[in-house]
């Protein structure tokens, strides 16, 4: 046995444990188990063609070599991306800390108070800087956030009589090019008509429902938009502003000139460029839109004792409830990046941010002044960080690249320079030297960045921001380190115990996969540099695309979508483009089984399709007769079927090939939701079942950590006929030869995070990656067997096996007054995060252990579940003062002088012996969701506010 093989570190069970588990589940071998689980007509005949697995050491050396193929130039391209300084204390204690990066989305609020607080800080920071009332806890990137603003305002337009049937949306020609591309993508299916023009010429016609402006403009020019917004509002036109977050430190906030929505990216708050992402976008708006805002909002509420507690507010699972009535499909967002950007605000505070913003502006000013002295004309009359120089772009480009400097060249006669936090005096002298050489003049060396006169007073910020205590306390490294630790301790992550989330695949995120993310040779590449400077990235991204294409059995892959749901939307838009290319413009019906994830119908509607729901059988499978009937009925207009495989019920439906055939026969394409790909890799694939396109959640199956709710990467893989339509980018060629417009801002989406999945596949190789799937199935069936007799499993395959996950029924306990939530909360006392609750069936739990968990951990989890089952036996509906209803139990409860519960302290907090040596303490009692929704507070209020309330 090669003991240095990565697979041994990734797979949980040892050989001996595998044998023990096989015995328990009554299978002789893994092969037999797979035979009993996966229908044989879809099994792959040949092993995947992947390069031989690398060891962790070999992989590190390989990545070192590849990173040296990237040329890290000093880059002043801007256009929404700027070099930033990631404080080392944040890098080490958050980005490189599994306590933060392996956490799940904070659905279980009682064991997520740390990241919830970090996100509340983020929302507060965004509200302060934008001057808005309400902000969410991140979106995917600035351009998608802008598109969300356009669609949200479209959805709410009918609130004013006058606007009910309006479809026009004005876009300033100062918008970022990638944002314009995304607005187009999202406008087409909704029949929104974009009108792009100079905002100074806009006539505020009644035909418009909304408008979007860029602040400062893409040219760098800062405009005073107060008059525009005022006039727009007179015509009942709502205005969104895409704003540079750092500029808002010195510029008037969009809220102060009455903007309705403000969006942007927080990348420049300490987040590496990473060749395009991941970065957190923000979305801020008025309180009146609190029920329409896309994504997740963190809000303040109370726990059972009336203590302050946080949780996700309102439409937390918006698409899951609204489904085809939803206007946004955002599920996974950019939580880890929002946490980091928020911490950047905490660390620097208002004074620190002011210093940074001034420094950037002063750098722009000195460069502008010096270049003007050299005889160049600077076109921006008012600017924050970006100046626009009239010069021979080709000549400057040549000199600049020789000095390893990138500018942006909007035309042959203009050079745009965006200064940033990392720009030093030396850097400024290099810029000056480049222009001096072009002008054939002597460069005057500057010695320091002088503080210049500030931005014109009419648009200068005159309101305070970040006045809350949290932004004025943790400015030393010791203080911030301890603050981060204090929050981390409140959260249960994979570094404490397994997180058995059905459909969400919380597997190991190996350190060796994560390490390259800290390397500036990967982190410090701007997404719009000439591709020759990113050879390392280009090679790795191509290899990853090829690996994913091979794994899915398809023809091509796009890494662009930033989440699974964005992948769904991208895939459906590709299908749409395919139909249109064949003059099938009318094909707009999308069949979706009733058990589908809420993002499926939401994405279909966003892609302009009509959702027709198909039935499930008693056994939880797709009702093939019903499907055939509907496919036939709609055959003239059928666009697609969206199907999850194995199904969301945890079963490999044996009729899948028949299902895909029915769709094809009736002119449709098959979209496979790849969230359950962990049950397929190496055994079968979407190509083999007859699908045409799928998304993969690299943050589920392919080891990107969940980050507490993001980042995600949701590539789409497609069959040959769809490959030409893979999404493009307006500035950097990518995608198919008939590419649809952009799905994400950056050409390769969140390229930096893609390295993790590349590491995962490269270190596991053909055998390891198949074994991962087999072990995932083994672990799930082991849990199924151990829980048998205690809990009913809802669905199984034809031969009685579960796939990689299973659903257990908790509805029968209602007669004892016990709800599925009580079991979820009680698991916290046992040191576990609950499985997925009430999806896809209300009142149930979906358990997915993954291949990374050892038998010992599975046993602890099963022991906990069985022990809880016994506790349920002792409860009754008449008296709900019991150990489940009162769960979770906090340390404060346990250590009060008066113990008033009808069970012992030991029963409350140490019900099983394994707990004592590794106790996890929830820091709040059960949170009150209804209270928080009635009294919505989404920013950190000053501490006095809580004292008054109490
Ligand atoms: C997670 C998931 C999605 C959505 O993926 P995101 O990355 O969160 O957008 C879609 N479908 C299923 C079945 C999922 O489990």
From TrEMBL:
Oxidoreductase keyword on record: yes
Ranges where the Glycine dehydrogenase C-terminal domain occurs: 772-889
Glycine cleavage system P-protein N-terminal domain residues: 9-435, 463-728
Signal peptide (residue range): none
Gene3D superfamilies xref list: Aspartate Aminotransferase, domain 1, Type I PLP-dependent aspartate aminotransferase-like (Major domain)
InterPro entries in the record: GcvP (IPR003437), GDC-P_C (IPR049316), GDC-P_N (IPR049315), GDC_P (IPR020581), PyrdxlP-dep_Trfase (IPR015424), PyrdxlP-dep_Trfase_major (IPR015421), PyrdxlP-dep_Trfase_small (IPR015422)
EC id: 1.4.4.2
Catalytic activity from the UniProt record: N(6)-[(R)-lipoyl]-L-lysyl-[glycine-cleavage complex H protein] + glycine + H(+) = N(6)-[(R)-S(8)-aminomethyldihydrolipoyl]-L-lysyl-[glycine-cleavage complex H protein] + CO2
Membrane-spanning intervals of the chain: none
A Pfam cross-reference name: GDC-P
UniProtKB keywords: Oxidoreductase, Pyridoxal phosphate
The protein's required cofactors: pyridoxal 5'-phosphate
Function comment: The glycine cleavage system catalyzes the degradation of glycine. The P protein binds the alpha-amino group of glycine through its pyridoxal phosphate cofactor; CO(2) is released and the remaining methylamine moiety is then transferred to the lipoamide cofactor of the H protein.
Known partners and oligomeric status: The glycine cleavage system is composed of four proteins: P, T, L and H.
Assigned protein family: Belongs to the GcvP family.
UniProt protein name: glycine dehydrogenase (aminomethyl-transferring)
Source species: Aquimarina addita
């Amino acid at each position: 046995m090669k003991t240095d093989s990565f697979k041994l570190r990734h797979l949980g069970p040892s050989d001996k444990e595998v044998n023990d588990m096989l015995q328990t589940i009554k299978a002789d071998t893994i092969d037999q188990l797979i035979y009993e689980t996966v229908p044989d007509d879809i099994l792959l005949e040949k092993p995947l063609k992947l390069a031989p697995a690398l060891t962790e050491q070999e992989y590190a050396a390989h990545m070192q070599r590849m990173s040296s193929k990237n040329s890290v130039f000093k880059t002043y391209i801007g256009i929404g991306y700027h070099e930033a300084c990631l404080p080392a204390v944040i890098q080490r204690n958050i980005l490189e800390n599994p306590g933060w990066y392996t956490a799940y989305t904070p659905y279980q609020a009682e064991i997520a108070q740390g990241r919830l607080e970090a996100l509340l800080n983020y929302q507060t920071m965004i509200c302060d800087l934008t001057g808005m009332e309400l902000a969410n806890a991140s979106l995917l990137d600035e351009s998608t956030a802008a598109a969300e603003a356009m669609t949200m305002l479209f959805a709410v337009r009918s609130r004013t009589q006058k606007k009910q049937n309006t479809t026009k949306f004005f876009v300033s020609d100062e918008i970022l090019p990638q944002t314009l591309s995304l607005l187009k993508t999202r406008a087409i299916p909704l029949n929104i008509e974009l009108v792009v023009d100079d905002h100074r010429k806009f006539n505020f016609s009644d035909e418009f429902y909304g408008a979007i402006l860029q602040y400062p403009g893409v040219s760098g020019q800062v405009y005073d938009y107060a008059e525009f917004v005022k006039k727009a509002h007179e015509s009942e036109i709502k205005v969104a502003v895409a704003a540079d977050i750092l500029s808002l430190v010195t510029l008037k906030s969009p809220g102060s000139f009455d903007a309705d929505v403000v969006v942007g990216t927080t990348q420049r708050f300490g987040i590496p460029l990473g060749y395009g992402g991941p970065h957190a976008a923000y979305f801020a708006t008025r309180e009146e839109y609190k029920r329409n805002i896309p994504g997740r909002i963190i809000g303040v509420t109370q726990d059972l004792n009336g203590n302050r507690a946080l949780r996700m507010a309102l439409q937390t699972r918006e698409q899951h409830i609204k489904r085809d009535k939803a206007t946004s499909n955002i599920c996974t967002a950019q939580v880890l990046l929002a946490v980091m950007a928020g911490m950047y605000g905490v660390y620097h505070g208002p004074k620190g941010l002011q210093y940074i913003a001034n420094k950037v502006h002063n750098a722009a000013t000195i460069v502008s002044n010096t270049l003007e002295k050299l005889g160049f004309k600077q076109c921006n009359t008012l600017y924050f960080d970006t100046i626009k120089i009239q010069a021979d772009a080709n000549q400057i480009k040549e000199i600049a690249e020789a000095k390893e400097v990138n500018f942006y060249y909007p035309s042959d006669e203009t050079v745009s320079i965006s200064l940033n936090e990392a720009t030093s005096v030396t850097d400024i002298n290099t810029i000056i030297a480049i222009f001096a050489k072009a002008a054939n003049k002597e460069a005057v060396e500057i010695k320091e960045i002088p503080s210049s006169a500030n931005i014109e007073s009419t648009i200068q910020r005159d309101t305070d921001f970040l006045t809350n205590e949290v932004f004025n306390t943790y400015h030393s490294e010791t203080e911030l380190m301890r603050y981060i630790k204090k929050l981390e301790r409140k959260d249960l992550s994979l570094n404490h115990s397994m997180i058995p989330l059905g459909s969400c695949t919380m597997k190991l995120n190996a350190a060796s996969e994560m390490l390259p993310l800290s390397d500036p040779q990967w982190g410090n590449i701007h997404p719009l540099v000439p591709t020759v400077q990113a050879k390392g990235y280009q090679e790795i991204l191509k290899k990853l695309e090829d690996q994913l294409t091979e794994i899915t059995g398809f023809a091509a892959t796009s890494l662009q979508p930033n989440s699974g749901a964005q992948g769904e939307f991208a895939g459906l838009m590709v299908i749409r483009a395919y139909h249109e290319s064949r003059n099938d413009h009318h094909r707009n019906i999308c069949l979706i089984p009733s058990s589908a994830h809420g993002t499926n119908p939401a994405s279909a509607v966003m892609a302009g399709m009509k959702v027709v729901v198909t039935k499930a059988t008693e056994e939880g499978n797709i009702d093939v007769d019903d499907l055939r009937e509907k496919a036939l009925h709609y055959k003239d207009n059928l666009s697609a079927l969206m199907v999850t495989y194995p199904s969301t019920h945890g079963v490999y439906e044996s009729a899948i090939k028949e299902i895909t055939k029915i769709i094809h026969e009736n002119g449709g394409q098959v979209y496979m939701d790849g969230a359950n790909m962990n049950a397929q890799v190496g055994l079968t694939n979407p190509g083999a079942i007859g699908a045409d396109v799928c998304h993969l959640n690299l943050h589920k199956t392919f080891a990107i950590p969940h980050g507490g709710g993001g980042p995600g990467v949701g590539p789409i893989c497609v069959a040959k006929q769809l490959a030409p339509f893979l999404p493009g980018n307006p500035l950097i060629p990518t995608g198919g030869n008939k590419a649809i417009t952009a799905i994400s801002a950056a050409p390769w989406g969140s390229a930096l995070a893609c390295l993790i999945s590349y590491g995962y596949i490269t270190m596991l190789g053909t055998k390891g990656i198949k074994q991962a799937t087999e072990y995932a199935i083994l672990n799930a069936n082991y849990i199924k067997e151990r829980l048998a007799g205690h809990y009913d499993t809802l669905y199984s395959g034809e031969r009685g096996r579960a796939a990689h996950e299973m659903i257990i029924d908790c509805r029968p306990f209602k007669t004892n007054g016990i709800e599925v939530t009580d079991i979820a909360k009680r698991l916290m006392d046992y040191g576990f995060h609950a499985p997925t609750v009430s999806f896809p069936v209300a009142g149930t739990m979906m358990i997915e252990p993954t291949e990374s968990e050892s038998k010992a951990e599975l046993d602890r989890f099963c022991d906990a579940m069985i022990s809880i089952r016994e506790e349920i036996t002792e409860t009754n509906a008449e008296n709900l003062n019991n150990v489940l209803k009162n769960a979770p139990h906090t340390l404060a409860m346990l250590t009060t002088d008066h113990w008033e519960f009808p069970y012992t302290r030991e029963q409350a907090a140490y019900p099983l012996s394994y707990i004592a040596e590794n106790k996890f303490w929830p820091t709040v009692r059960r949170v009150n969701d209804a209270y928080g929704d009635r009294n919505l507070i989404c920013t950190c209020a000053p501490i006095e506010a809580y004292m008054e309330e109490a």
